[in-house]
Write a structure and sequence with these properties.
By secondary structure, this protein is α+β, with helices and mostly antiparallel strands. It is built from 14 helices and eleven strands. It binds adenosine-5'-diphosphate. This is 3-hydroxy-3-methylglutaryl coenzyme A reductase.
């Protein structure tokens, strides 16, 4: 290490230079990360040899994605595919350390493709933010609620809201009250961005505007949790947040047998007992599925989404029905709150951007803003459909195998008993 850097490390260890100023003071992000790492080593005595330092563009995260970097975590990316969805083929990148996840999703893709493909529909596309404000009385809070929800005021609110972005367009406001506190859930379209920044800026415009007519309004927080971001909440399950998507496929009887190694009746029965009744018994909120979050999170990490938003993005109801006189399987996943973007946040980083490119949804869609993000949401739903199909099949097949084994074991036991019974005679 150069002498000059030695001095800086010593100053950081002695807390004479705050670690967080290194990037701006040195003007070299890699050097700053190296110095911080060395200071950490001296303070803790831990080498962290397995955590690489070189091979990452630290300038790309400065002021945007991660502070105080000392290295980067490596994650394997597997690719499952093709997913045949809405007549297009997708190769889906999944970053995970869970064995069998990519393979299992891949098997689901095969079953879907051999049955003619899946199709999807985007029912809603809007990001939400709900500030909390307090008034001297519930009556005053209700007055603002009435103002915001009056259709005659929508155009004015939209003009104010839309000022801060070319893409953020107000769709509506829904209010809830708790005593004299008012929660205003603004929903807006956000183009190809996931949209949290965009919606927050629009909401701030409206709060500033309202302050004139409602001077007694006390803004408690730009986010009052009625939004609801990164927390399990019925509002997202019922009203939707981000993209609300339904994806479906009809899996042919022979594919269920050949690829999924089970039968339609066993799948339908398992889905009712596990994903519907079992989740109801558990008091699930949006968790009427086998493992949607496995697939959602792996794609989120690979494509630079906010992994914490898997909480609501993984809300999913999986439905299975026997159709065509009980021969074939209709499967659907209903996912009301998939929060994804193809611009902003972690999507611009090199690895994540490469994964978005593989899906053909890298960056902004210039001809039709928002269609890249919507396509990504449908791919997430399509992959979840495949993951559900494969895991439910494995569990149904496992049940079948167990029943067979039980039968086999009992017949083996019987023959063993017969053998033993025969032995004395043989001797
Ligand atoms: P988020 O709101 O998801 O946090 P950012 O605000 O960080 O996202 O990123 C969105 C930025 O990208 C905005 O500055 C926006 O003007 C720009 N942008 C360019 N093209 C698009 C597009 N097609 N859709 C959405 N945003 C876009």
């Amino acid at each position: 290490m150069p002498e000059e850097d030695e001095e800086i490390v010593a100053a950081v260890v002695a807390v004479k230079i705050p670690s967080y100023v290194l990037e701006t003071r040195l003007g070299d992000c890699r050097r700053a990360a190296g110095i911080r790492r060395e200071a950490l080593r001296r303070i803790t005595g831990r080498e962290m040899d397995g955590l690489p330092l070189d091979g990452f563009d630290y300038a790309s995260i400065l002021g945007q994605c991660c502070e105080l970097p000392v290295g980067y975590v490596q994650l394997p990316v597997g690719v499952a595919g093709p997913l045949l969805l809405d007549s297009r083929r997708h190769y889906v990148p999944m970053a995970t350390t869970e064995g069998c996840l990519v393979a299992s999703t891949n098997r689901g893709f095969k079953a879907i493709a051999e049955s003619g493909g899946a199709s999807s529909v985007v029912l809603k596309d809007g990001m939400t933010r709900a500030p909390a404000v307090r008034f001297p009385s519930a009556r005053r809070a209700a007055e603002l609620k009435g103002f915001l929800e009056n259709p005659a005021n929508f155009d004015t609110l939209a003009t104010v809201f839309n000022r801060s972005s070319r893409f953020g367009r107000l769709q509506g406001v829904k209010c809830a009250m708790a005593g004299r506190n008012l929660y205003m859930r603004f929903t807006c379209s956000t183009g190809d961005a996931m949209g949290m920044n965009m919606v927050s800026k629009g909401v701030q415009n409206v709060l500033d505007y309202l302050q004139d007519d409602f001077p007694d309004m006390d803004v408690i927080s730009i986010s009052g949790n009625f939004c609801s971001d990164k927390k399990s909440a019925a509002i997202n399950w019922i009203e939707g947040r981000g993209k609300s998507v339904v994806c479906e496929a009809v899996i042919k009887e022979e594919v269920v047998k050949k690829v999924l190694k089970t039968n339609v009746q066993a799948l339908v029965e398992l889905n009712v007992i596990k994903n519907l009744a079992g989740s109801a018994v558990a008091g699930a909120l949006g968790g009427f599925n086998a493992h949607a979050s496995n697939i959602v999170t792996a794609i989120f990490i690979a494509t630079g989404q906010d992994p914490a938003q898997n909480v609501e993005s993984s809300q999913c109801m999986t439905m299975l029905e026997a159709i065509n006189d009980g021969k074939d399987l209709h499967i659907s996943v209903t996912m009301p709150s998939i929060e994804v973007g193809t611009v902003g946040g972690g999507t611009q980083l090199a690895s994540q951007s490469a994964c978005l490119d593989l899906l053909g949804v890298k960056g902004a869609n210039r001809e039709s803003p928002g269609s890249n993000a919507r396509l990504l949401a449908t791919v997430v739903a399509g992959a979840v459909l495949a993951g559900e199909l494969s895991l439910i099949s494995a569990q149904a097949a496992g049940h079948l195998v167990q029943s067979h084994m039980k039968y086999n074991r009992s017949s083996r036991d019987m023959s063993k008993a017969a053998e033993e019974a025969d032995r004395p005679k043989k001797c």
